[in-house]
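We emphasize that the prediction below concerns an isolated chain of 127 residues; any contacts that depend on oligomerization or on bound cofactors are therefore not represented. The input was used exactly as deposited, without trimming of termini.
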Amino acid sequence: QVQLVESGGGLVQAGGSLRLSCVASGGTFSNYAMGWFRQAPGKERESVAAISWSGARRYHVDPVKGRFTISRDNAKNTVYLQMNSLEPEDTAVYYCAANGRAFYSSNWYNSGDYDYWGQGTQVTVSS
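Result of the prediction step, given as a token string:
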């Protein structure tokens, strides 16, 4: 059983930056691909970014490309989401998740393929 704990959320003005962290425990972190998802009020959860177990493959959804960057440090059992040039539309609860199954460019965004989830951290971007 893998436990995930996110941190780093908060209130920031448009154009600002935040760095989210997600620390894993209870499993072998390097066995899992990791993803970040978000859910805004009244909307469905959506994928944001994901990274393979080694960090060699990274994916970002189009709305965040060039602004957000996912990375990981397997020695620290931590995955990060660096968020720059934040926009009010980025306001949401951000969740990290672990994928112990097959991880490809065709499925990284599928939340159903992620086995473990954190409790989420709120990101609010004011205009």
